[in-house]
């Protein structure tokens, strides 16, 4: 039995892990590479023929974990895609949105390159189309947390709550080789303890191998109350200057958690009563999935919903689905809060709001989630003097802020807490889904604190289990 690391190895995005025995191939996650320097991998041939893969198991519905599925299906994959019920619903929304953006971006680039008389680094075609995305849907097969299901006669799996986004799962796999059975834990993205909306991540006592994320493997988050106070302060100060608060937000979980905090601050009268635009059709759709799957939420949030007092809605919240409504936001005078995707500013409506606000010293660009190296969001966060948006150069003159406490990813100490729950790991811990420095730092920390056999695999490395 062996595992091959096809992505999220010494980088954050493109999660793809291929588990093989003599008879079968199972792919755990099937994500897009989103770092600018690595996007070319999305266009390359998949390392094994997609038709040779028996099944895909998804940890959750973020694009860097499920966004490559339409291309995999188009190129010959015919098996089941196993996930939790909320993951299926959110993945459908995410994939359709991604396909729409792929088509729009390809058309926009083609038009721009023709005008400029040049060719770009990638084909002026979408990576996949809306039709390709829809062709994924019949492959979904869902199971709730805690119920074991069969992938192949030798491989069984169970989903456990990861506490990261709605429906996110840690995958426990029991796989039989020629001589013995191995238990392999794929952490997916690990959530946090005692946060609003979702339950705590599941912990485990033993395994043979663990494949573990390390996004924040060398950093700690702010305390929740510090983050809440910082959000309050940024809104008040930006209002005084007369600018907008522009939030590049991930449509899944981060947006809902941000709405939760804004609703709370407004009820307590701690921030000015400003218009809040949720300018993301995908986030609007995902918020409906949250309402539908209340059984996956924590007790406090379920109690809100049971009282029909949704923490994801308030009188000043305006949902903008159409392009016309989105464009109209830019004509509003005074201060407003604009929440738009994508979370790393790699596409979508956020780019238009950045164009209208990034040169305004009175406006604030507020990041509430991880920004991968090589993304526009990371460039802005690092306060580069100028950035390129839609092919044009803009000076960065707006106030740039980051709130770490709203992250849906466990930080260094929380990751260590999760790993320390194991009493017995008989084999190795493979540290993935982190920039190289974060992964190496966290692997060293686990060796020091937990005496674990932790290694950071390389891209395309194959390991015999």
**Strand line-up in the sheet with most strands:** 6-5-4-3-2-1-24
Taking the sheet with the most strands, its summary is: 7 strands, mixed
Fraction of helical residues:
25-40%
- Strand fraction equals 15-25%
Top-tier CATH class of the largest domain: Alpha Beta
By CATH, the topology of the largest domain is Metallo-beta-lactamase, Chain A
Radius of gyration: 22 Å
Estimate nothing, just give the exact number of structural domains. 2
Name the shape in a single word: globular
Number of helices: 14
Termini separation comes to 5 Å
User: What do we call the CATH homologous superfamily of the largest domain?
Assistant: Ribonuclease Z/Hydroxyacylglutathione hydrolase-like
The strand count comes to: 24
- The average pLDDT value, as a whole number, equals 93
Please name the CATH architecture of the largest domain.
Answer: 4-Layer Sandwich
> Which structural category fits the helices and strands?
alpha/beta
**Poorly predicted runs:** none
